[in-house]
């Protein structure tokens, strides 16, 4: 079936931070007087709160036993991430070109406040035909229901929709289980290429290679 829509993950696929997230988290902790917390601990807590409205529940877990305000740490971390965030070079022009032929979607894991603020920081609030944040849904990626909600919002079916993302479990595994073809975005230090993906594209080459793959389907 011809491709009708292309949907994307956000973080580490279309946009990246110029400073690594562990450093940003450490700086935010210092700013509000919180004890140091590792990136791994943050990711564990984040994974348990994919349908939360904000990162406050994430930091409540990390700050358990302290008197630091989790909302203050959530705000400090959000501000630092947004300041460091920028589009992968060339993807904005790519999205504009793709929009001439396909419906564009976004499905990003995370709390509403954090992920919507990233879209505002990037100037992407109106970039997609459907932009879903799992904090607004009943489940996050890789759950099939999250991808079903994306398809509903796009008005397309799985066989005519391609999902593009970097995470093996959330993006490739979730999309393929829901019946979509997945394109895995790869980069140094990222996940190894997953054979379940229909294609693998180096992130730096995404603006040129993704349109070529879509045209070849």
TrEMBL record:
Coiled coil: none
A biological process term (GO) from this entry: small molecule metabolic process
Sorted UniProt keywords: Hydrolase, Magnesium, Metal-binding
Gene Ontology MF terms in the entry: hydrolase activity; metal ion binding
Assigned EC number: 3.1.3.-
Pfam families documented for this protein: Hydrolase
Cofactor(s) essential for the protein: Mg(2+)
Family: Belongs to the HAD-like hydrolase superfamily.
Protein name: HAD family hydrolase
Organism of this sequence: Haloplanus ruber
